[in-house]
Amino acid sequence: xxxxxxxxxxxxxxxxxxxxxxxxxxxxxxxxxxxxxxxxxxxxxxxxxxxxxxxxxxxxxxxxxxxxxxxxxxxxxxxxxxxxxxxxxxxxxxxxxxxxxxxxxxxxxxxxxxxxxxxxxxxxxxxxxxxxxxxxxxxxxxxxxxxxxxxxxxxxxxxxxxxxxxxxxxxxxxxxxxxxxxxxxxxxxxxxxxxxxxxxxxxxxxxxxxxxxxxxxxxxxxxxxxxxxxxxxxxxxxxxxxxxxxxxxxxxxxxxxxxxxxxxxxxxxxxxxxxxxxxxxxxxxxxxxxxxxxxxxxxxxxxxxxxxxxxxxxxxxxxxxxxxxxxxxxxxxxxxxx
Length: 338
Fold this sequence. Notes:
Elements: H1 3-15, H2 30-33, E1 34-38, E2 43-45, E3 51-56, E4 62-66, E5 69-80, E6 89-96, E7 107-112, E8 122-128, E9 139-142, E10 152-158, E11 162-167, E12 170-176, E13 191-198, E14 218-232, H3 243-250, H4 259-272, E15 273-280, H5 295-301, E16 304-306, H6 312-318, H7 321-329, H8 332-337
């Protein structure tokens, strides 16, 4: 063990940091929890049925869906994204009930938006309630690591009171339900989906860069599935009592954000978020009711909700990468999460 790693290990033990919110959780096989959605031969299950590869080629993408619908839940998977040039390729991990409630559907999204080789991966989170697709609540971010090099855990928590999006042990977004949100808060049973597909018309730099099938097949890998929630039939006459399931979800570590995770979320949003609908006064002259306006963020995002070139994002790119890494490694909490 190097001197630096030994010092870090001692500091870590002394701090007694809380363990990950995702340890000691039961993972499921594909057969136990999921079903193929589309793509036929482009969905490849491992021999032990514990992982699956989704492929996109010039003929089709692919996807899977949870075998059940859930009234609230925790949805999580380890995911490794396609490598090299992936402009226009979208890998999505999301919940939806659009197949059952076509005009009033709910949705919670994590969507990876492809990248040009050598550029950082970008992704977005979004939520819709009761068909409010004209009132999208998207935020866009960069990742602090290369998601094609190794697996990372991506998770969505959805309860009657809050929604949290996680990347590994970092909560990147929290939405607290308010009465003012009304039906815009997702409330109907949803299935879990994962898909890979061609979104050349919008995904990478607004559609400037298209899918290049010279690099096909594009492969996304999923494993270590977690689906905790109340399994329901959304059209049954007598609603299922899901109070025990909600109690279970709200008793888990992933329901609460501790002080270290709260600090990590604040740092992530300061450094890696480059669009927020809450500051987009062109779309929303009055911020939607769940938005918590942070004055420093409002100054950075101006009126469009998007960081301008030449602003903090560009300055961040000009910073010496070695200096940025040293800042992270100098703080054990930061290094653990970033």
